[in-house]
């Protein structure tokens, strides 16, 4: 199975909004609403930010939102803050009953 | 709340078998409803899903690792384990365990354990 495709890096200024894309196929993202997003700070374990495409776990800021169109999922962060600077990964269920991650996106807050 | 903790040797020799255990506390694996997964992250690189197992023993693996991976569950000890055979330097990574609900997301995660493959 191939990794989902994410941009290597994105950047934005404090207060701005950014969107990270995650592109797969009809056998993963396009076929199921089982897309999730994770935030990872250096040296830390990943943290769940979005599940089932657009649901936020309790305790995650409402500045984080998720969506999906066709074979591409997106994570949007509004009102960027310095603490949002981290690596972000998407994940999807696949038609083979397996899971796959994206390659990761480094977010820089300018 | 459920917590997961990885344990195992931090150094493994090439061609040997890497063995790790994930202890689950605050909840019972045998109560069902969740899969239990291993994920790894080579230094400076991205996340790679290794596989997951249900309490009944039903398991699924990353096709790229399937020939070398075995994940097992011990409900009596409330833990699950990873074995990766014939390791090389490319298997050097931080290994994480995580719980996976039916709609397939990872939460919570263990803190991770670094395994280095070197002679």
Q: What is the molecular shape of chain A?
A: globular
Number of strands of chain A: 9
SSE succession of chain B: EEEEEEEEEE
User: How are the strands of the biggest sheet of chain B laid out side by side?
Assistant: 2-10-9-4-5-6
Structural class of chain B: mainly beta
Tell me the strand percentage band of chain B: over 45%
- Biggest sheet overview of chain A: 6 strands, mixed
Compose a concise summary of this entry:
Chain A is built from no helices and 9 strands. Chain A is an all-beta fold and 110 residues long.
Describe this entry's structure for a reader:
Chain A has strands at residues 9-12, 18-23, 35-40, 47-50, 64-69, 72-77, 86-93, 99-101, 105-109. Chain A is an all-beta fold. Chain A is globular. With 119 residues, chain B is mainly beta. In chain B, the strands form two sheets. Chain B has a six-stranded mixed sheet, with no helix packed on it. A four-stranded antiparallel sheet of chain B has the order 1-3-8-7, with no helix packed on it. The model of chain B has no long low-confidence stretch (mean pLDDT 96). Classes of the chains: A mainly beta (110), B mainly beta (119).
């Amino acid at each position: 199975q191939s990794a989902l495709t994410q941009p290597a890096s994105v950047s934005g200024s404090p207060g701005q909004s950014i969107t990270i894309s995650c592109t797969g196929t009809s056998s993963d993202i396009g076929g199921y609403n089982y897309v999730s997003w994770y935030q990872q700070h250096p040296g830390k374990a990943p943290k769940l930010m979005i599940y089932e495409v657009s649901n936020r776990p309790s305790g995650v800021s409402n500045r984080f939102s998720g969506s999906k169109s066709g074979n591409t999922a997106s994570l949007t962060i509004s009102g960027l803050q310095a603490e949002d600077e981290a690596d972000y990964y998407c994940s999807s269920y696949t038609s083979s009953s397996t899971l796959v991650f994206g390659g990761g996106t480094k977010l820089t807050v300018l | 709340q459920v917590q997961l903790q990885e344990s195992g040797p931090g150094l493994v020799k090439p061609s040997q078998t890497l063995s790790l255990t994930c202890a689950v506390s605050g909840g019972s694996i045998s109560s069902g409803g969740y899969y239990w997964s291993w994920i790894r992250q080579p230094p400076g690189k991205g996340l790679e899903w290794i596989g997951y197992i249900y309490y009944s023993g039903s398991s699924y693996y990353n096709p790229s690792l399937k020939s070398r991976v075995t994940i097992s569950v011990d409900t009596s000890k409330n833990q699950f384990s990873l074995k990766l055979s014939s390791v090389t330097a490319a298997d050097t990574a931080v290994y994480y365990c995580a719980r996976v609900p039916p709609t397939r997301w990872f939460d919570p995660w263990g803190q991770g354990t670094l395994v280095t493959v070197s002679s």
